[in-house]
Amino acid sequence: MPAWESITYVNPAAAYDSSKFVKNGSLMSYQDENYVSVQGIDVSSYTGDIDWAKVKAAGIRFAFVRLGYRGYTEGGISLDSHFVQNMDACKVQGIPVGVYFFSQAVSEDEAREEAAFCIQNLSGYDLALPIIYDPEDAPDDTA
User: Fold this and answer.
1) What does pTM read for this prediction?
2) How far is it, in rounded angstroms, from Cα 39 to Cα 61?
3) Topology of the domain comprising 39-135
4) How many CB atoms within 10 Å of residue 110?
5) Scanning 2, 53, 80, 96, which has the fewest C-beta atoms within 10 Å of its C-beta?
6) Please, what sign has the CA dihedral across residues 129, 133, 139, 143?
7) Using CA atoms, how far apart are residues 29 and 20, in angstroms rounded to an integer?
8) pLDDT of residue 84
């Protein structure tokens, strides 16, 4: 058993007042005497080209950029085609950034391969936010 499996983390639920959630278009915010939310986005090649100056002007305070993904059919790992562009633009605009990897790993070896891929492709970048592992199941039996 890996050492991390024996660790128990306790994160008590925050006491949110549901009446303090405010929806403005597609964005939701929260503020009370203890908590103030900030708006952030996650982006990938599916988002297309982004005007990051407009993003910042709209009040977006952080971004998570998709670094890469494991393909559905062959299981190969690919760098998101907009990764470098989005990372560079966040730096220019002063938007704190983290990254995520969209995983379809089916074994520990594949997960390790994905982690190594992330480390290799983050060389030269300073992250203000964490690396997020985004595991998702393949959409159908042929993947």
Assistant:
1) 0.80
2) 6
3) TIM Barrel (3.20.20)
4) 15
5) 2
6) positive
7) 8
8) 97
